[in-house]
Specification:
By secondary structure, the protein is an all-alpha fold. It has one domain (about 10-100). The chain is about 60% helix and about 0% strand. The protein is built from two helices and no strands. The chain has helices spanning about 10-25, 40-90. Helix 1 runs antiparallel to helix 2 (about 40-90). It starts with 9 loop residues before the first helix and ends in a 27-residue tail after the last helix. Keywords: Coiled coil.
Length: about 120
């Protein structure tokens, strides 16, 4: 027994719906679907689905562009903050805790020296 599958993927649904609409239009009054009550609704829903798909694609492109710009700015901000940190470290070489007053987290733990076996 043969099966006729209907995809759930948007692009495949749009393609199939377009083919059905084209066939119905070509067949005109002799179309088997001429009396299908939801045919106009199918066309409207197809148009809406394609519009939403386009908007989603545009939004994804915009999101990618914005993330690239955000990351570019984050690198510049980090570079500036590192310069500020280095300037403050040079000003307070003996008391790095004062950098905490500027919002920096000061780690006061020292790395344990690993003893080498004798």
């Amino acid at each position: 027994m043969s099966r006729v599958k209907v995809s759930s993927k948007v692009h495949e649904l749009a393609d199939l719906a377009s083919k059905i609409i084209a066939k119905n239009t070509t067949d005109g009054e002799s179309s088997l679907l001429k009396d299908f009550p939801n045919f106009a609704s199918l066309q409207t829903r197809l148009a809406k689905m394609q519009e939403y798909e386009q908007k989603a694609d545009d939004a994804n492109r915009l999101k990618e562009e914005m993330n690239e710009q955000k990351n570019k700015e984050a690198k510049a901000v980090r570079k500036d903050i590192i310069q500020i940190r280095n300037l403050l470290k040079a000003h307070y070489p003996e008391d790095l805790k004062k950098l905490g007053g500027w919002g920096f987290t000061v780690d006061e733990t020292t790395k344990a020296k690993i003893e080498e076996p004798a």
